[in-house]
Write a structure and sequence with these properties.
Chain lengths: 396, 246
């Protein structure tokens, strides 16, 4: 059989009957996305990842299955589902690949969500249905070459020019930017207030070169956004928000999805390690029969279970509109770190095979290095919790 | 066109099979259930395609308890217009077929579709029995179906080849692999399925002439015996004395 086309034998794991906490909608959504990933993602992902190429055709498929903005209202191209359904969809996508999940997170939480939440009715109707159906691809520009963890220091700016603004500056590390039709860009106005601007592909002075050489998220396309005197109509400014809380509220949405997504990557690594350790024999017995292997497996399923419960509780609070940015930050940090640790342990269990693309482990592990860093680095999230519990700002 | 698709639940293919009640019943404890793949991937999807081409409606029907509602909802999420559940715990193909036939008798369905078999009991009986009870022609193991007005041209699997049959509505068919391709429900379908009707109907009185006396599991597979390629006499001896195939 061709490399990368091997059978995906993944089976879900649910040690604490978390399924019992989920509704029929959630389970149907979970199974549907799991089937979709097995059919569309697993057979091709190792190959695309190996070649560092983005499987563009999956944008349409993600739209059709309903992975873009599932918790936004239906009349704006969303799915009308709850936050737990959204989380579960992200979990199953990231079970396939963090890059595929990123395609959906950016489109739904970082592009559709701000246009829905802060956009005018005209902006909503103009962009959301097309973004929901995958006709438009979106990207989100916050990070700059010199301002990553410290976005409030951004230098990208807009200047008044009658019924337009003139946009200058550059954004860095922007998921989907080279293929995006629309970019939600965060820039400072003349009084230094951060505003959201919808920039469209083809506007003179706007370019989006690709960033090459990534060892992580290789199936996801990343680039820059460069603005040289780009004239943007004022009607493209998001009227509903000013200041850093605009981009931060989008990040809260996406981080919430990542807290679930990471569980998917962890489960895939655990699932593969469990199966491998039962099938592979050394010293006359399966690897799973050795105490040190069992310790690894036992710790993995324990950590996955804790992460599932954290995500589920966060989801129920999100459904009530009560999940705080601090709580979301904690779940993102904990679950991504947990997934990365599990990927590393799972890699060891697979021995030499673990470093090849016969198994998904190294791909997940490399992907998770990005997931640990984007949407707020692991350490920044520690500082967020630290500030929350002590009341002391240790950022500066 | 009015289409009726019979759907059944079956244990997930990875389920561990065990029996209870003195080996007269399948033990459902801890078993995950799915929609029978022949019903879901082929019968239901082909029915939806026929409706999409010619208009009409697709009704799914199941004989079972409320434990089957999740499977029924998946059918609605994939695209069926409405669902009927005959509220009984079926014990035989005869019972299922009689219940479905009793429900369908006065509803004037043009085509009744079933899977060629369920992947648990592999009976391949329900479709034929429904057709008999409704006095309709029955085409089994359909791999291809084209409708032209009320005439269907159906290709069916036969040993070593295929048979092409023509039949006019109303008729019943059982679906094999190839009749259609799996459709994965999308989020829109899942949300819409909540608004579609699921009618629970009381069963009719039926005396079932057959009953299951017992189940047994197949013998456990024996481990592989490796024979040295030099030792042909030993191989022949094993094939003759142990495997008893030569
Ligand atoms: C593949 C990929 C895709 C991305 N997609 C997007 C996107 O779509 N849109 C977008 O806007 N951004 C995106 N990002 C950018 C990402 O959010 C940033 O990389 C991240 O915020 C960190 O910024 P930085 O890389 O500049 O690192 P820095 O901020 O320079 O941080 C470097 C290190 O210093 C630490 N550090 C920084 N400040 C402190 C402090 N006060 N105290 C202690 N430690 C500190 C950090 O934790 C980190 O370990 C993406 C990044 C990657 C890699």
């Amino acid at each position: 059989m061709a490399k990368g086309a091997k059978e995906d034998r993944f089976k879900g794991h649910d040690y604490y009957n978390v399924d019992g906490l989920l509704s029929e909608d959630h389970l149907l959504a979970r199974d549907a996305v799991r089937d979709w990933v097995k059919k569309e993602v697993s057979p091709i992902i190792e190959d695309y990842s190996n070649r560092a190429e983005c499987p563009h055709h999956l944008f349409k498929g993600l739209a059709e299955i309903g992975a873009f903005g599932p918790s936004l209202p239906e009349q704006y191209g969303g799915g009308g589902m709850d936050e737990i359904a959204y989380g579960i969809i992200m979990q199953e996508l990231e079970r396939g690949d963090s890059g595929i999940r990123s395609m959906a997170s950016v489109q739904g939480s970082l592009v559709m969500y701000p246009i829905y939440k802060f956009g005018s009715e005209e902006q909503r109707l103009k962009y959301l249905p097309k973004l929901g159906s995958g006709e438009f691809i979106g990207c989100f520009g916050l990070t700059e070459p010199d301002h990553g963890s410290n976005p409030s220091g951004m230098v990208t700016n807009i200047k008044d020019d009658g019924d337009h603004v003139i946009l200058n500056g550059a954004k860095m590390w922007i998921t989907n930017s080279p293929v995006a039709d629309v970019a939600v860009v965060w820039a400072k106005d003349e009084s230094g207030i951060i505003r959201g601007v919808i920039v469209e592909k083809g506007m003179p002075g706007f370019s989006a070169p690709e960033i090459h050489g990534k060892w992580s998220l290789r199936a996801s396309i990343t680039g820059e956004l460069v603005f040289e005197d780009v004239r943007v109509p004022k009607s493209n400014i998001l009227p509903g928000v000013q200041g850093l809380k605009g981009p931060l509220s989008c990040l809260s949405k996406a981080r919430y999805g990542i807290a679930w997504g990471a569980i998917g990557a962890a489960m895939d690594c655990y699932d593969s390690a469990l199966r491998y350790s039962l099938e592979r024999e050394q010293f006359g017995k399966p690897l799973a029969g050795f105490q040190l292997t069992q310790k690894k497996l036992a710790e993995m399923i324990t950590e996955i279970t804790k992460a599932q419960l954290l995500a589920w509780r966060l989801g129920t609070m999100a459904n009530e509109g009560k999940a705080t940015p601090g709580q979301i930050s904690m779940a993102k940090r904990n679950n991504v770190h947990m997934a990365l640790e599990i990927a590393r342990e799972a890699r060891q269990i697979h021995g030499g095979m673990g470093i090849t693309n016969e198994y998904p482990i190294m791909r997940h592990m490399m992907n998770l290095e990005t997931v640990l860093t984007y949407e707020g680095t692991h350490d920044i999230h520690l500082l967020i919790t630290g500030m929350d519990v002590t009341g002391i700002n240790a950022f500066k | 066109m009015k289409l009726l698709v019979c759907i059944s639940k079956t244990p997930d293919t990875t389920a561990k099979i065990a029996f209870t009640n003195g080996d007269t019943e399948f033990n459902e404890e801890g078993v995950q259930f799915i929609m029978n793949p022949y019903d879901e991937w082929y019968a239901l999807v082909r029915a939806l395609e026929l409706k999409e081409a010619a208009g009409g409606s697709v009704t799914i029907i199941n004989v079972g308890t409320s434990a089957n509602d999740a499977v029924i909802r998946k059918g609605l999420a994939i695209g069926a217009d409405d669902a009927v559940r005959i509220d009984a715990d079926p014990k035989s193909s005869y019972f299922v077929a009689k219940q479905i036939a009793a429900y369908a008798a006065d509803k004037e369905f043009d085509v009744v579709l079933t899977g060629k078999e369920t992947i648990d009991f592999n009976g391949s009986e329900v479709g034929g029995m429904i057709a008999e009870a409704l006095d309709m022609p029955f085409i089994s193991y359909a791999t291809h179906l084209e409708m032209d007005g009320n005439v269907a041209k159906i290709t069916r699997d036969i040993e070593g080849g295929a048979e092409v049959a023509e039949v006019s509505t109303p008729f019943t068919l059982s679906a094999s692999k190839g009749l259609a391709e799996q459709r994965i429900p999308n989020m829109k379908g899942i949300m819409m399925s909540k608004r579609k009707p699921l009618n629970v109907v009381a069963p009719v009185e039926i005396s079932d002439p057959s009953k299951v006396v017992g189940y047994t599991l197949p013998d456990a597979k024996e481990s592989v015996k490796l024979v040295d390629p030099e030792n042909m006499t030993e191989l022949v001896r094993l094939l003759h004395e142990e495997a008893k195939v030569i």
